[in-house]
Amino acid sequence: MQIFSFSPFGYEGSLVTVEVDLRRGIPAVDMVGLADGAVKESRERMRSAIRNSGFEFPPERVLISLSPADLKKEGAGFDLAIALAVLNAQNNAVLDEKVLVMGELELSGNLRPVRAVHAAVSTAALAGIKLCIVPEANGSEAREVAGIKVFAASTLAQAFQAINAPSLFTYSKEEPGKDGGFIPQGSVDVDGVLFPAIRSGFEFSDVVGQSDLIRALQIAAAGSHNLLAFGPPGCGKTLSIQKSQALFPLLTLTESQSVTRIYSLAGLLAQSEPSIRTAPFRMPHQSASLEGICGGGPYCRPGEISLAHNGVLFLDEAAEFRTSVLQMLRVPLESGRVTLSRAGRTTVYPASFQLLMATNPCPCGNYGSENKVCLCSAKAVEQYWKKFSGPLLDRIDLRVHVENDAAKDSEKRLSTAELRKGIAKAVTIQRKRQNCRNAHIESQNILKICKTNNQATKVLADASKRYDFSPRAINSCLKIARTIADIEGSEIISEHHIDEAVKYRNNEGGLF
Which of 24, 37, 153, 166 is nearest to 93 (CA)? Predict the structure, then answer.
């Protein structure tokens, strides 16, 4: 029998072969294979766990080998694999198959949960390993990977029993590859598109006087467009954007797999939610470092942009973030991934996130206000907006100037359920038409997908001349208009779609 474990470095990680040799000599436990301190300490945990589980520890000299030898191994997830390899070498277990084993041992022989189980099981499945043994607390997480038999053990004794009884393993899914994944409780089906349950505090009908921002958030959610909202303090920017979590559909199974892998590697998977189906919504603090946003550390842990993969990264008070952090976002926004290099090793994390930002128009927050006086100098306002830079702002599709407009209190307020209907219609159209959302349409496919009538073409040409739009800005207007047309169920982009798209892209009357 061949026992494997998993070393979680970066996004990919590596399978590790665990081998044990019993030989003559003074009784001791030797370990080779570039193990870190936590792995080396497993020798003592493993010895006590074996004895306290009712087994006899081998009286011979024990050599433990972790391969590949040049790969550094870290964490306590190797405990169970090492213990089973020792017992297997002593008792000659009959199971003649490859098996993935992960788990941390207590001295009593009980098992503690470990991180990266989903990533380990999915990697093992791709490598042709069909069996895995994990702690009971990680069982539901492991069963979300199709096509592999799982045994969830609570003790070392149970795990050893499974090694000798293949019938104890059960398939993670009845039919590998079939859509039968975890769905959060209370999910709502809107015209064939699943949305999370509307929790308390996420009802848009409670928002007063911000119809333009809510409309922009509906468009952003429908087409996965980036958005910047700016206005005076207390006008409702943050409140509305935080409520937008209720507008994003649940992830498909394909989208969920990569997100779940990232959260598994970060140790953020909850037992109540074995796979991530709710679109991530990350809101880092303004003091976040470059490494905290893009990821890093000695083992290349995921950063906020990867944790926001297939979801939203919300930067509240965006101008207060470090300039280096804001500028770092440009490449991931374009490529949808981030490459990290540490100690001669490189890993690539997916980072296809939607960027939402909220900021004040100036340091004091009163620039452009009709009722308040701005105390900032022209230079201070200029320096404030310079933190964003032209190339970053050029990647923001929707720009919304938010004001405290009491006159809008009488306007009809749309509920979250009503907003979802247009989003569901647009998402359904996009899933049938292409393999990506409208914001991610490639340049060579824009004219093919974003078909306009003659009047709409003329309106866009006039707007591009009037506002001196760059090629990226023109493409952005077409993508926004495509999303607006999808919300209405229109196949062809009309002039009123272009008019609304240009308004949000150029933000007439605002700061741009």
Answer: 166
If one counts the domains in the chain, the total is 3
Percent of the chain with pLDDT over 70: 95
Are 148 and 297 members of one domain? no
For 471-491, give one letter per residue: b (16+ CB within 10 A) or e. eebbbbbbbbbbbbbbbeeee
One domain, residues 24 and 160? yes
Structure tokens at 171: 């398939």
In a domain, 484, yes or no: yes
In degrees and rounded to multiples of 5, residue 149 shows phi and psi of -90, 135
Domain range for 503 is 441-512
Q: Is the peptide bond before 68 cis (omega within 30 degrees of 0)?
A: yes
Q: Which of 122, 146, 171 is the last residue of a domain?
A: 171
What's the chain's average pLDDT? 91
Alpha helix ranges (H) inside 103-209 = 117-126, 139-142, 156-163
CATH number of the domain that residue 252 is part of: 3.40.50.300
**How far, in Å, CA of 460 to CA of 452, rounded?**
10
Helix axes of 156-163 and 79-91: crossing angle, nearest 10 degrees: 50
The residue assigned the tokens 């393993």 is: 169
Structure tokens at 125: 């499945």
Q: In terms of domains, do 245 and 336 share one?
A: yes
pLDDT for position 173? 54
Q: Are residues 194 and 167 in the same domain?
A: no
Q: How open is the CA angle 448-450-452, to the nearest 5 degrees?
A: 105
pLDDT of residue 456: 95
CA gap 286, 124 in Å, rounded: 38
Residue 193 forms beta bridges with which residues?
Answer: 190
Q: Per the domain annotation, does 511 fall within a domain?
A: yes
Q: Has residue 15 got a pLDDT over 60?
A: yes
pLDDT for 93 equals 61
Place 221 in a pLDDT band, splitting at 50, 70 and 90: very high
pTM, two decimals, is 0.91
Provide the H-helix boundaries in 164-310: 211-223, 237-243, 253-266, 290-294, 304-307
CATH of the domain at 124: 3.30.230.10
Q: Is 409 a member of any domain?
A: yes
* Shared domain check, 405 and 308: yes
| Cα separation values, 476 from 201, 203, 312, 397, Å | 32, 29, 19, 6
